[in-house]
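Q: You know discrete backbone vocabularies at least as well as I do. I have my own habits and do not want them to colour yours. No explanation is needed for now; the record alone will do.
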Amino acid sequence: MSQERAVPVSAVPLEEISSWPKELCRRELPSVLPRLLSMYQNSDGWIEHIQILKIIVEMFLPHMNHLTLEQTFFSQVLPKTVKLFDDMMYELTSQARGLSSQNLEIQTTLRNILQTMVQLLGALTGCVQHVCATQESVILENIHSLPSSVLRVIKSTFVHCKNSESVYSGHLHLVSDLLQALFKEAYSLQKQLMELLDMVCMDPLVDENDDILNMVVVIHSLLDICSIISSMDHAFHANTWKFIIKQSLKHQSVIKSQLKHKDIITSLCEDTLFSFHSCLQLAEQLVQPHAQDNADYRLFQKTLKLCRFFANSLLHYTKEFLPFLSDSCCTLHQLYLQIHSKFPPSLYAARISKAQQEEIAGAFLVTLDPLISQLLTFQPFVQVVLDSRLELPCELQFPHCLLLVVIMDKLPSQPEAVQALWCADSQVSGATTSGILCTSTRLLTLNPSPPTQVSLLKGIFSSFEQCSGELSLPVCLQGVRSKGQAEAAVTLYQHVCVHLCAFITSFHPSLFPELDTALLDAVLSANMITSLLAMDAWCFLARYGTAELCAHHVTIVAHLIKSCPGECYQLTNLAILLKRLFFFMAPPHQVEFIQKFSPKEPGNLLLWQYISFQALPADLRRQTAREVSRVCTAQCREWLGSSRTVGELESLVTGQPYVQQTLSLLLPLLGFFIQTLDLQLISQVVTLQTSLLKLEPPDHVRLAVLDFVSSVGKLFIPQAMQDKILPSLSSIFASLLSDRNWLLEQHTLEAFTQFAEGTNQEEIVPLCLSSEETKNKVVSFLEKTGFVDETADARVERIKQEKGIFWEPFAKVTVEEAKWSSLQPYAKRARHELPVEEKYRAAVQAAAGALGAIESLLQQSVPPDWLLTEMEALHERIDELKRRVV
């Protein structure tokens, strides 16, 4: 030993130091370590760097005081180590472009660099292993340089490996063995680091210190690594995520305010969605006959398991950090929509077998349901889902509707405050249960500014309205299982209607004003199917609720009808609702209604034209019908006896809208009483209709004509009257059967079939078929042939295209704007400008805008010297243009 000490330590070569025994290393640590650290800092060669680093880590690190590792070693060595690694990576990437099997020099250089990098990673692994082996718990402040340095090196390694195909330009095979070794070493280093970090202890009573910030940096560095390795190693990717979630929860109390929760949620959602898409792609392959191999199915199950893992991780993280996720609600909402847009029964779903659908739903989709339950009480999520400004692409509209129904199903089990959070509308807050009347007045008069958040019910009706393609196909959803009956598929309309009605039964009484408003709002919708859904729900409410509530609603609807400003679709919708609700009224309430809106009063006739007498008991029906007939007859006689009748007759030509409206009401009525009419009157009506059709009246008049002529088939026409009626009748059918309007054509074919089946004058039938085309059309209709042969897939694609065409132009028009437009007075029609005139106007507006911009700049800053000269030049040009105009 004395001979070994004869030589000064500063003069001992590295080769000799590398062979020292442990005891000598321990004893000479204070004198050798400073020299080695100095050599490491001042060395220029990569090889020597690695040699020194390995000596320090393998021989002297075990003898250092673990409490002073940061000061004595990590802080002095690791920054240089990271720079060294970065330099090697830069050189590696730069030289890789020239790699080829012929260029042995570059090939050797690259392999040497990769081998050196592997050794460097091994040295870092030794550092991490030493800390794990010597400490039961770790204080991050004592080693804070180590995790950050290691993670930076790991990240750089994984990025290089991920991009290796492009970096090595088709010559990857020449270095693939060393790249694989580099990846494995980085993989091992990260596993070791995660083991070390799992030993970190943090004081929960300390709100802010360097340990907290360091841990947050570590977690987000691992998050970056997750995004890199996601497509490289699924198991490693999942384990890294598992560690991130575990550490976030372990140190939740001290780091919850420092974590970038939005970044974590966004990454989790992206990885969940990516895994789900991969799962669907594999499921599509299993549908193919040649893809029934067990290996394919095992890969599908493995990917599905990964989907479930990500969904559960998201569920767990959301549960623990919900108060901090206000800016992540949009991401979570989009995740739900994106997933369901790619899964049956969406029009945009992947084509996968029923078996795979059930597997995915049972293993993965079920985890989304508790996620929605967790978010149910979170106001920022409510605001995102019910945002009135929400504009979704076509493929996400149907999933959004399903989400709202899911939320609606969950609310009955929630406290009143949560129900109010979803169902309250800011426009009717403070209203009473009878507040529907003042709300209806608002609906029929002014157009208020819509709130940024609509109620859940309004959101459902609005979302439902956007699902035109799904309604017309229709898509089918899983139905509700009944006792003793098999579960049957239901259409989207049935699905929403059933769940909406079930929700109404559990609606909290304090929220009835919102229910009333939402139903009335939807009834007044310009969209027919939305209005019909609201009517069905309202009729359910009438049957489920008390008789008094039904009578109250009928009275309100009656008042609304009487207050309508004129003919509009809202009046039509209210009239249909009134007719349906009237059937549910208790007889005593019907008597009260008749007393309140007496048919003896001419002002109530508008109301009684929409009420079916069939809804009344027999005695009351006869009495009311007589009163209505008596008042109507009296009014007609009064008009006919008026001194102005002769003068008014000159203005009644059949092209007038009021006359056309009268005919469209009168002709179906005459058809209903056809058996009681005088044949001479029938002849006159048929002749009038023939003349009327020559003037090309609007469709509603033609449909009224069809109502009348279809009923003539029931009538026996004597021989003496046939020459007066039959020619006109055949002319009417021939004219309408040749019409190109598809809706009118369909009604005409139905009316003609009804006429032909009931008439005794069979000789008239061939006379109605004026051409071979018309004859073929009728035959095809009767034989149910001539339909376009369309496959299920082709039909779905067509409906998707139609939905895109029909919806996109209106995507930026809100439901409220569309609803109010027809109730407002028509604006004056703008004067049509010629194309050249429009160009002049656009040019002048552009010039005025430029002058306005200059004026604004002058108010904000000192003008440049050249501005006055340029403005004078512009002034001269304007004068010249004015002279040319004059």
Notes: Confidence is low (pLDDT under 50) at residues 1-7, 427-448, 645-652, 809-834. The first helix runs from residue 2 to 6. The first strand starts at residue 476 and ends at 478.
